[in-house]
Design brief:
Layout: E1 2-3, E2 14-15, H1 16-30, E3 42-48, E4 59-63, E5 73-75, E6 78-82, E7 85-86, E8 95-101, H2 109-121, H3 145-161, H4 176-183, E9 186-187, E10 196-198
Parallel strand pairs: 1-7, 2-9, 3-8
Antiparallel strand pairs: 4-8, 5-6, 6-10
Helix pairs in contact: 2-3
Length: 204
């Protein structure tokens, strides 16, 4: 069992994961297509990248259950489960939302918002720890990237048209260096990726 770190004191600088969490809370509250998402059970972390460039993975969503919310899966005739992840209060997380810095922060403002909605959209409508599964071979993303991105842009426009407080998204208007310079640094929650565990081994 893995527990999220709890900071005893606030480091100096900008709390990136704290601000992203408030942003996501507001997005799922204002856009009804995301009303199934309970951010209290979505862990958020940041991951360090080597270079401050925008190309490459900027964010990802890791489901902490298997298909249809199952705790187990069978692969190559062996049964597996996934390491559990809890917050300091003991609440079990169902998803892990990751942002790769400084790469994510190098994107243009609108693309940052599209990326956040893109990852939140992967959360299955049953909110059972499984991802949203689309029809056909491309069950994670649709067969048309242009259509998928256009749909995420529609969610961005809907959210912005509902007048969220500027303080929720102002930090997305800066690149990483600007953000760090303005606040004396950037910090956030770091979480180890939960591991797949053979069922004949005890989860740590």
């Amino acid at each position: 069992m893995e527990r999220l770190a709890q900071h005893n004191s606030s480091p100096r600088g900008f709390d990136f994961t704290g601000h992203i969490r408030r942003l996501c809370h507001d997005m799922v509250a204002r856009v009804e297509e995301f009303s199934h998402v309970d951010m209290r059970r979505v862990a958020i972390r940041y991951c360090q990248t080597r270079k401050a460039v925008s190309h490459g993975i900027q964010a990802s969503l890791t489901p902490l259950r298997f298909e249809q919310g199952s705790l187990f899966m069978t692969r190559r005739r062996r049964r597996w489960t996934i390491q559990r992840l809890h917050d300091p209060a003991g609440t079990e997380m169902l998803y892990l939302l990751s942002f790769y810095l400084p790469r994510f922060q190098q994107l243009p403002f609108e693309e940052k918002l599209i990326t956040v909605f893109h990852e939140l959209w992967h959360i299955g409508p049953a909110f059972d720890g499984d991802i949203r599964r689309l029809p056909g071979r491309c069950h994670v993303h649709s067969s048309s990237k242009c259509e998928y991105d256009a749909e995420m842009k529609r969610f961005v426009d809907k959210w912005l048209n509902r007048n969220p407080h500027p303080s929720l998204h102002e930090f997305l208007r800066y690149n990483f260096r600007q953000l760090a310079h303005a606040h004396g640094g950037v910090y956030g929650t770091r979480i180890r990726t939960p591991k797949l565990i053979p069922c004949d081994e005890q989860a740590a």
